[in-house]
Amino acid sequence: MSAALSGTEMRAIAKEAFIYGWPVCEHYNTLYAYSIDVKNPDYKAPLNQIHSTARVFTPEDKVIVTPNSDTPYSFAWLDLRTEPVVITVPAMEKDRYFSFQMIDMYTHNFDYLGTRCTGNSGGVYMITGPGWKGGSYSGEGPPAKVDKVLSCETPLALAMVRTQLKGPEDLENVKAIQSGYKVTPLSSYLGKPTPEAKSVNWPKSDKALTMTVKTYEILDFVLSLLPVHESERELRARLLQLGIGSGGLRISESPPEVVEALEQGMKDGWAEYEEVIEKSFAQGKMSSADLFGTRDFLKNEYIKRFGGAKLGIYGNSREEAFYPLYKTLDGQALDASKSSYKLVLSKKDQEIPKAFWSLTMYDGVSQLLVENPLNRYLLNSAMLPSMKVAEDGSVTLHISASSPGPELESNWLPAPSGLFYMVMRLYLPNSDAFSGGWQQPKLQLVPK
Predict the structure, then answer these.
(1) Please, which pLDDT band fits residue 191 given cuts at 50, 70 and 90?
(2) Is 2.60.40.10 the CATH classification of the domain at 324-445?
């Protein structure tokens, strides 16, 4: 497969494959854990069934990095290989935010259902996969009983659902809404026999594996299931020169020079991530608004898709949510073992999102939520009634490893005693959030 390639050429292709494909592999890890490996403690439901978690995420949830803890999640992995899937959404209050983020196997957000796109009146929607020739079951055009048809370019997709929780007393309302979410293969929806999909030998994978050279085997497997997009024909042909996309790549059977090229390609990929994404964020030249969206929005700039997967896979498109990141202050990594911090949100800052805002704490190493005595993983706008708010409507959030004292504890976001980062979430932001009309509030050091 690589006889005509030099070591330099193989390394270049390996780097290209890694940047292009690592998000695909991380996405596959979620598929495998949530819908394939029934023994996995994070298993949710089989393909084409929806599973709702009637609670917010905690530090015990370890599959998805940088998860939100504002909204209880529902998940449905969709198998679109043989037929479409029908999603039913119940009506709910107009002031409750919810969204179905539709994610293809490349991690593009190919479409949405929810408050912003389809409203809160409920509806029935059909998701179709590549090459679907069946039209719709009413004859021509959208089916009579379906409000919208969403087309996915890959035969597998994730429907990731967020339902706003307004406080602990609201949990039963959220449970009732989640029970109304339905995912049904089209044949079952019509009361007809379900066509049998071709069996697949799903390879085992997890985060530890996809941080090694074996990630190329996972990428090879997933790409073998996906049709080649017209814009990527030349790219996919280059990857095939290393056997990636053939469905038969085995690292243990590959020549040493190929394995060496793959390993070096991974290192080169990580170096480009540091150079392009990390530096751009530190310099304020890039934000989360640049990393998540449709294929058309991302324009096949694969390092951005890679950056999104590393910083927080499954981030929303910018119209749905905006994610100001707090990772450094004056060029120094945030470290609660050395310093305490505060963040002042003005009234205007709090009005940028039409739905709600939050600030969530993450461990700087694991990228997961942080255990703490209060079991408090974030501060958000729903908590304002119990927080200290200034007369001008501003609120000061205190960030530290130890309590700032009883008087300020209502505004305290506990941090680990070490490296950390925080993500602000602005749901349904106005355009000022990402057009330059608003600047995220600056984190401040608290004098010792």
Answers:
(1) confident
(2) no
